[in-house]
Amino acid sequence: MSNWADETRIALDNVMDNVQNIFTPNLRLGVTGLSRSGKTVFITSLIHQLVEGNNLPLFKPLAEGRIIGAKLSPLPNHATPRFAFEDHLSALTSKDRHWPKSTRQISEVRLTIKYQSASWIGGITGPQELHLDIVDYPGEWLLDLPLLSKNFAQWSTDAFERASDPARRDIAKPWKTLSNAMAKDAQFDETEAQKLSTAFKTYLAECREDEHALSALPPGRFLMPGDLEGSPALSFAPLPPQAGNKPNNSFYATMERRYEAYKDLVVRPFFRDHFARLDRQIVLVDTLSALNAGPAAVKDLQSAISEILTCFRTGQNNILTSWFSSKIDKILFASTKADHLHHTSHNQLELILNHLVGNAARDAQYKGAATSSIALSSVRATREGTVEHQGETLETIIGTPQKGEVLSKKTYNGKTEIALFPGELPAKPESVFDANGDHIGQLKFLRFRPPAPDTTETGHFKLPHIRLDRAVQFLIGDKLK
Ligand code: GDP
Question: What distance in angstroms lies between residue 41's CA and the mean position of ligand 1's atoms?
Fold first, then answer.
């Protein structure tokens, strides 16, 4: 995936990181997941919980009373935008409480954790510090990394093959009709190029809509352009295979050049400057939205996760690798928004996630990385209750649906609290791919407003969550021993 020049640059960057952090070690934690999987909410809640330190009972260093404090520190790298933690927290905790703006591009934030080591030597040397560098980036960009090993013809073939899948066929029609109408040996024309590229982007965007909820939709910047919004670097589209000579000014040759430029100027720098330097990774998965959209969406999500996983440089670190080419030695897969289900279904949600990430996780384990799966809610927006229905007791969740949410033809106003029986997850994880499974159409998911404020005796705001402490323990607990 990377060439020797990239590897040299990565090694140099790693050495620089290590020199800069010789007195205070750092841990680079990547947070990724496809659009709206819950990255922004996760990072905001994670930082808030670590800084407040009053709501993470299963995070051992905190439970053992060894965390002295955590605070945000300036970023060492001025070129990367800072994660807007303060804005996001204020959105969640403001009077009209709303969810923060989602991830649109890469950003970073540094949290410095001061702690007392549990080892005997720690007792002598006194408190220590760890810089936790949290890197937030769209999972869509990872789906670009496999492009580095594909030429334009191969990528085009893949794109057309994917578009003939029954779940995509109809959505792809307008773009394919336009593409098929082009003369094979056409000369390049900018207006036509824009038209074709826009049609291809519209097809990708429609695939992503809630009702289809498809996931594997490269090139990632077409849906999540970040700072390349409106850039000509994104005006290309796949073309049917063409044999023979392609003159320099032909449509095909120009599209091919743009594709190669996208790889060199967009994909490769992201891989080299950010992605290849991560130590730990959490992959957030919105399993419930995919289940809600049906088996095709679940299958597509599984294939996107596998593709994402093939990009990780996983393995165990030793002194040499941690200086020159750091490897991801722990990956946590997290099914987010577990507060949409009663806790009695969480175990089932974890089993389904395990099933989705199965092969990819086994591959990472084989290379020496530790992996785990968890159902969590970074910010818990619901409580639990029961209702009697036709002589049966149903376990429900209670929350305030967001304004405009619709269920059974009723539109909610953002103020009314309701009790909802979300339905049951399929008993067998493998049946999530079954188009005739008995679970199809049974699940009900609504977007809820963030929870009403809960303040502690000291006046500090407490954000409720589900299993965020278990996630933190897995991701950084061993680094604070
Ligand atoms: P991103 O695109 O990955 O950054 O996704 P966000 O973090 O912005 O989350 C997208 C949406 O998912 C939010 O606006 C919320 O509606 C919802 N969401 C995220 N995390 C949670 C959670 O823990 N509980 C609930 N109920 N909803 C959540």
Answer: 6
Q: What is the pLDDT of residue 205?
A: 94
Beta bridge partners of 373: 333
CA pair distance 289, 296, nearest whole angstrom: 12
The Å distance, Cα 405 to ligand 1 centre, comes to 15
Q: Which of 281, 326, 327 is nearest to 16 (CA)?
A: 326
Buried b / exposed e over 66-92, threshold 16 CB at 10 Å, is bbeebeeeebeeeebeebbbeebbebb
Q: Is 218 found in the same domain as 263?
A: yes
**Terminal alpha carbon distance of the chain:** 35
Is 319 exposed, middle or buried (CB count within 10 Å of its CB: 0-12, 13-18, 19+)? exposed
Residue nearest (by alpha carbon) to ligand 1 atom 15: 99
Contact 100, 44 (CB under 8 A): yes
Q: What three-state secondary structure class fits 367?
A: coil
- Closest by CA to 96, choosing from 438, 400, 446, is 400
Domain count, the chain: 3
Report the separation in Å between the CA atom of 38 and the middle of ligand 1, taken as the mean of its atom positions: 4
Q: What is the pLDDT of residue 433?
A: 84
Q: Is residue 232 part of a domain?
A: yes
Whole domain around residue 427: which residue ranges? Answer: 383-456
Q: pLDDT tens for residues 142-172? A: 888 888 889 999 999 999 999 999 999 999 9
Atom number in ligand 1 closest to CA 33: 3
* pTM of this structure: 0.89
**What is the bridge-based pairing of β-strands 392-399 and 406-407?**
unpaired
Indicate whether 473 and 344 sit together in one domain.
yes
Which residues of the chain carry a pLDDT beneath 50?
320, 323-324
Q: Which atom of ligand 1 is nearest to the CA of 466?
A: 23
Alpha-carbon gap, residue 198 to 192, rounded angstroms: 10
206 in any annotated domain: yes
- The residue whose CA is least distant from atom 25 of ligand 1 is 337
- Cα of 167 vs centre of ligand 1, distance in Å, is 25
